[in-house]
Specification:
Blueprint: H1 3-27, H2 31-48
Length: about 50
């Protein structure tokens, strides 16, 4: 992957994370609830993506 593409992708990911945190904060959702949801989603993706 060329460096400019990587840097743009990195910028988009960081921006999306910042927007997500801002939206959750603006909606009044506790940060703990966001963290638990993210951990559960990561666990689900990990378990579904396993090769048996």
């Amino acid at each position: 992957m060329p460096l400019p593409h990587f840097l743009v992708m990195l910028l988009l990911v960081v921006t999306a994370a910042g927007l997500t945190l801002w939206a959750v904060s603006a909606a009044g959702v506790p940060l703990f609830a966001l963290a638990v949801t993210a951990l559960l989603a990561a666990a689900a993706v990990h378990l579904v993506g396993r090769e048996h």
